[in-house]
Design brief:
The complex is a heterodimer. Chain A has a two-stranded antiparallel sheet with strand order 1-2. By secondary structure, chain A is mainly α. In chain A, a hairpin with a 2-residue loop joins strand 1 and strand 2. Chain B is of the alpha/beta class. Helix content of chain B is 36%, strand content 28%. In chain B, the strands form 3 sheets. Chain B has a 6-stranded mixed sheet with strand order 5-6-7-3-8-9, with helices on both faces. A 4-stranded antiparallel sheet of chain B has the order 11-12-10-13, with helices on one face. A 3-stranded antiparallel sheet of chain B has the order 2-1-4, with helices on one face. In chain B, helix 5 runs antiparallel to helix 6 and helix 9 packs across helix 12. The radius of gyration of chain B is 25 Å and the shape is globular. The two termini of chain B are 33 Å apart. The chains are: A mainly alpha, B alpha/beta. Chains A and B meet through helix 1 and helix 5 of A and helix 2, helix 3, strand 5 and helix 4 of B.
């Protein structure tokens, strides 16, 4: 797929989504408020009950910063994951028109997916800026222009990886009518094992070590830690390389699923 | 341009008895049965030809079109479109074919048609001057220039179909598949689409396959038709020849002079042919083709005839008869 087409798809998709202004703001604001309120009460209760100042190295303030950060970043990484557009197109025959275009279907969908997350990126910066303006910069977080710049590639790798992880699951629609549950499962497992529900440091040490070898960490914990300035240059490069490596592995694993699936594609109706 | 040889497609579909018990059982065991959608299709279509693919619902028309456009894979058989195997989906082939499905919107619903066309220009890598020229020409032919900036979902069905046609033809395809392009349209819109297709054919001479349930589409656009019945091609030839081959009878209608003294009696004229209607002053007979001169002569001889007409039956009726006839056991494979 040529770069011009890729950019055009991103732009068209973003414009389309931003034209639905109500949906654009309501979903994002509601989600952020819910996240802040739930985590504030939950972790306040945990810290009060244990009477500890820190838990596995996290103060109450640090864990709140981490969880709000991972929430904002997670929305960008996942995009409109539960809409399962690829599965829907396989199911309702919408795939047919893409098979006629002289272009790669998955690349086409990824361009649209990137366009769909642009509003989320705008919101992420707006909300982060808003929270910093209200509460001030967290004392022990190393935010800087440099870490923000480093976060962008990390965020992109996380986004690409999450998209690629969802692709083979969506290809299951070649055989099954409803793959929504697989999408939900991916979201839940990736959030749990990627450090979006709680930092991996809260897991037992061996488990946390093992989880850092899985792909999910590149989707959540890695970009948040980059943004918070917790990683050295070498750790950053290793993290990026690991994320990209997983992208390659998952993309390769999708190929036979696609090949087998499209052999049985009917395009709806006989 | 299109060569098809013994192309077959079998779908495996689940069969489930009604009721809760059967539903529970189907969670564990499912009975699959083969559905032979296309059974050994062979034909050839050349440049500038518009071939009508006709058949009842579920006869296999759309499946055939989908295979030839590369959307689905066949179970067996061969096909070449512009020298390429369609289901291998080479970009070279995909840049030279188009599929228009009347029942499925292919444009982006939330965008104005003009934006969709820009996107298609990038997808097909159409050079800018060619794109502008084609768009102006196609929009002009369909008289739709003023609607290009309107969101697709706000267009009427007829306007949308016109936009779909432009979208499919912007890249000047050499092979065009039209799957029910006039479905659901009013008479004016149908006519506009038909006129456009004819003009487009005259200018660009692509090979076209048209499926439609409207006989007027077929009669106006196609000189050759392929009739498909239960997946099998039962007729491939000129449209007019269908009448010769399949119409065993003609309709003979005689009107008597107003002041004539004789009236027509049904038992008398029934010797000439099967009486369709008879009201004393007019008779309509269904006469075997070989006996038409004899029947006409008898009517003219016995009655004071003011006017006599001899008509072929409607092509649509003949085709419907062919389509609806059950396949003989020899023709049919066991499913």
């Amino acid at each position: 797929m040529n770069g011009r087409l890729f950019r055009m798809l991103i732009s068209l998709e973003a414009r389309k989504l931003m034209s639905y202004r109500g949906d654009f703001w309501i979903t994002a604001v509601a989600n952020l408020i819910a996240t802040v309120v739930v985590h504030w009460f939950l972790w306040r209760a945990i810290f009060s009950t244990t009477g500890a100042e820190t838990l596995r190295g996290f103060t109450f303030e640090a864990i709140m910063v981490y969880l709000i950060g991972v929430n904002l970043i997670g929305r960008v990484v996942r995009g409109a994951d539960l809409q399962l557009e690829i599965a829907g197109e396989i199911y309702d025959g919408g795939l047919s028109r893409f098979l006629l275009y002289p272009t790669r279907y998955v690349a086409f969908k990824y361009a649209q997916h990137l366009g769909a997350i642009l509003p989320e990126v705008v919101q992420m910066f707006l909300f982060a800026g808003g929270l910093i303006a209200i509460f001030g910069l967290p004392a022990d977080a190393g935010f800087s222009v440099g870490t923000i710049a480093m976060t962008i590639p990390a965020l992109w790798v996380g986004n690409l990886l999450y998209f690629l992880l969802s692709v083979p699951l969506q290809f299951v629609a070649f055989w099954a009518d409803n793959v929504w549950s697989l999408g939900v499962l991916l979201r839940f497992i990736s959030m749990l094992l990627g450090g979006a529900m709680l930092p991996l440091a809260m897991f037992p040490e061996e488990a946390a070590h093992a989880l850092r070898w899985l792909p999910f960490v590149a989707c959540y914990e890695f970009p948040v830690r980059v943004a918070m300035g917790e990683l050295t240059g070498a750790e950053y490069l290793v993290g990026l390389a690991a994320g990209l490596g997983w992208c390659g592995v998952v993309a390769l694993a999708s190929v036979p699923v696609w090949r087998k699936g499209q052999l049985g594609y009917t395009g709806v109706g006989i | 341009m299109i060569e098809v040889n013994d192309l077959r497609k079998t779908f495996w579909v689940h069969k489930k008895a009604p009721g809760l018990k059967a539903s529970i059982r189907s969670l564990f065991v499912r009975r699959k049965i083969p559905k032979h959608a296309v059974r050994g299709a062979s034909f050839h279509i050349g440049e500038g030809e518009i071939v009508g693919l006709i058949g009842a619902n579920g006869a296999g028309k759309t499946t055939l079109v989908k295979m030839l456009s590369g959307v689905i894979h066949p179970t067996s058989g061969e096909a070449r479109v512009l020298g390429h195997v369609p289901w291998e989906r080479s970009n070279e082939l995909r840049r030279r074919i188009a599929l228009i499905m009347g029942q499925k919107a292919q444009l982006w619903w939330d965008l104005p048609a003009a934006d969709c066309f820009l996107l298609l220009r990038e997808i097909y890598q159409i050079p800018e001057p060619e794109y502008r020229n084609n768009l102006a020409k196609l929009a002009g032919m369909l008289s739709i220039e003023d609607e290009l900036q309107i969101q697709v979902r706000r267009l009427s069905l007829g306007e949308r179909m016109k936009m779909e046609l432009i979208a499919a033809l912007l890249h000047s395809p050499r092979v065009v598949y039209l799957d029910e392009p006039t479905i659901g349209l009013d008479l004016n819109a149908q006519k506009a689409i038909r006129d456009f297709i004819l003009e487009y054919r005259r200018e660009r001479a692509p090979a076209m396959i048209l499926t439609s349930h409207y006989m007027e589409d077929i009669e106006r656009l196609c000189e050759r038709i392929i009739i498909i019945r239960e997946g099998e091609l039962v007729y491939d030839g000129p449209l007019r020849k269908v009448v010769e081959e399949y119409a065993t009878h003609k309709i003979v209608t005689a009107h008597l002079k107003r002041n004539g003294t004789l009236t027509i009696a049904e038992p008398e004229v029934s010797r000439c042919g099967e009486v369709v209607t008879c009201d004393g002053a007019q008779v309509k007979l269904r006469v075997p083709r070989a006996r038409v001169p004899e029947a006409a002569q008898a009517l003219l001889h016995h009655y004071e005839v003011a006017d006599i007409t001899i008509e072929e039956p409607e092509i649509g009726d003949i085709i419907a008869k062919i389509m609806n006839a059950r396949a003989t056991p020899a023709e049919s494979e066991t499913t």
